[in-house]
Design a protein that fits this description.
single chain; mainly alpha; Helix Hairpins; 3 helices
Length: 58
């Protein structure tokens, strides 16, 4: 998900009025967040390694 999110973010920098892409980006970010929340609750070590590997804030 992270690579797709980065690609869509770059696209939106060039095309700020592309609302369908913006909605798709928000959907992907939400999906990634839900998956990470699941890992955080059920597999803490795996969550931490993924978070550190992807260099995510939370």
């Amino acid at each position: 998900f992270t690579k797709r999110i980065q690609r869509l973010t770059e696209h939106l920098e060039d095309h700020p009025n592309d609302n369908s892409t913006r909605q798709g980006l928000l959907d992907l970010v939400g999906k990634r967040r839900r998956l990470l929340n699941y890992l955080q609750e059920n597999e803490v070590e795996r969550y931490r390694s993924i978070r550190d590997e992807l260099d995510l804030r939370r």
